[in-house]
Amino acid sequence: MRWITRRRQISLFVGLWLILAMTGRDALGQETKTFVAFSMKVAQAQVQEAERRGEDFRRKRPDLFHLGGITKPWAVVADADRGDWIVVGERGPKASVLTLDDWVVALRARFVHVEADPGVTIDARPSAKCLKAGLRQACPDATDEDVRFFGGIENTHVGQVCFEADLLIKRIALAMEPVPVRELKTYLGLVMEQFRKAGIRRQVGSRFSFYPMVNRVNVFGDVVLLEKFQIGVFTEVLHAEADGKPVAGAAGLTDDPSEAFSRSFNEHYDAVAAARPILETLRGLTRLAALAKGLRQVDARMPLEYYLQSYPVALVATPKEKEIPTTTSQNVGVQLSGGVTIAALATRLKGGDASALKGLVLASRPSEAALTWEFAVGTRDGQVASVRLPAQVSDATEVASVFSRALFLHQKKHYDAAIDAYGKALTLAPDLV
Fold it and tell me: Secondary structure of the chain: what % helix, strand, coil (to 5)?
C-alpha cells in the first residue's frame, strides 16, 4: 500500500471509523480488505497518449488494460470536482482478469445499445420438415442453431465469453466435458436414471440459460454500489416426445432432470468455475454490466463520451451459427439450446449514505495523476460495509422491478434467491404486506 501523508492517514482513520459506525455494530466479525481504485479519467488520457505514439497499450500497459488488476468490481464513485469517475474493486489471484475493453463494452451495452440486456441466445434453426409442420421453436429435427447477440457484444471478448460459457454448460450437461466436481450431476445422467426407474422412452429439447439470480445495484447520488451478486443456470422445456408421441404443451411443462441439473450446477458453481475459468470470467463480466446499468441513474454527469464513442475496442470474432449438441440412444434423446443474459436491477435510493466509501476512495488518492491506488475498507458477510441503506426507494416502479424479479425466481423454483428478492421488495416498500 502506498505511503500517504499524515493528514490523509487521519482522513482514512476517520473514514474507517465511519464505516464501522454506520453498520450499527462493533468490529467483531468484520473483515478489513484491501481495495483497488482505478481512475477512468487518467486511463482515457493514457490510452489516447498510447494511440498518439502508435503503442499497443494492451500489451505494454497491463496495469492500464487490466483495470489495475481488479477482478471483482464493487463500485463506481463519481468525483465531480476533478471530472473523474473511479472503478473500485478487489484483486483476486484466482479470479479471471477483466479488461478495459470489457468495461467499455458493458458501458456501451447500457448507454448505446439499450434495446435489450447484453447477452446471447442460441436457438434451434427449424428443419424443412419442422417448417412444413408449422414448428419453429419446438423443432426436434433441427441440427443447427442460430447465434444472436444483444447489447452490442458481438465480435467482442464479452460476446466470446458469453458464447463459450453457453457452449460449456451444454457440454457439461451432456457429459461431454468432464469436470473434477464429483458431486455435480449431469443432465444426461439424470435422464438415463429417470429412464431406468420409469421406463419411458423420451425425446426432450431443453434450454439452459445463464442468468443472474441475485444482481442488485444501489445508486446513492454519485456512488454506484453492487449490493449482492449470484449467477446461476435456469432451464425450460422447448419440446418433448414420450414413447414416440409429441407431448402437447411441452413448453409449459417441468422436466425433472432439467430442474435437477440446474439445481446441482448452481450449488456447485464455485467449484466448477474453479476448474473452468470461463465461468469465473462470466461472473466478473456480469458485475461490470451491473455497475454500468447503475451509472445511468447517478446524479453527477459522467464524462463517458470518449468511451462510448471513440475508445478502440479490440475485435474478437464471434460465430453466427453452430451445430446443436445432441445425444441419442434407443430409449432417450436430448437436444439442448441456451443463452446468457447479463441483467441487473439498479435501484435509485432516497437518503442513504455512501459518503464514507466515497471519502475513503478520494482521500486515499496519492495524486490526481494516479491511475490506480489502494485503500482499506471494512466488509461484513462479503459485502462492503460502508453504506447505510435507507428504507425506501425514490420510485415505486423500481419496487415493481424487484417484485417481478422475485416472481420470476419463484416460478423457476430458485426459492432461496426468490425469498431474498421478496425480502428486498418488502424492505423497500413495507406497505406491500
Answer: 40, 25, 35
pLDDT by residue (tens digit) across 212-250? 775 678 888 889 988 777 788 888 777 666 666 666 665
DSSP string, 346-406: EEEBSS-B-HHHHHHHHHT---TT-SEEEEEEEEETTEE-S-B--S-BS-HHHHHHHHHHH
Q: What is the DSSP letter of 247?
A: P
Question: What is residue 201's DSSP assignment?
Answer: -
- SS3 letters across 289-332: HHHHHHHCCCCCCCCCHHHHHCCCCCCCCCCCEEECCEEECCCE
Between CA 68 and CA 374 the distance in angstroms is 10
Q: Are 37 and 372 in contact (CB under 8 A)?
A: yes
pLDDT at 19 over 70: no
Q: The C-alpha cell of 297 is what?
A: 441513474
Give dist(CA 384, CA 2) in Å, integer.
22
Digit-coded pLDDT (tens) for 277-323: 999 999 999 999 999 998 988 877 889 999 999 999 999 999 998 77
Average pLDDT, the chain: 77
Residue in the structure block whose three cell numbers are 431474498: 420
Closest CA to 104 of 312, 278, 286, 290: 312
Would you state the pLDDT for residue 124?
A: 72
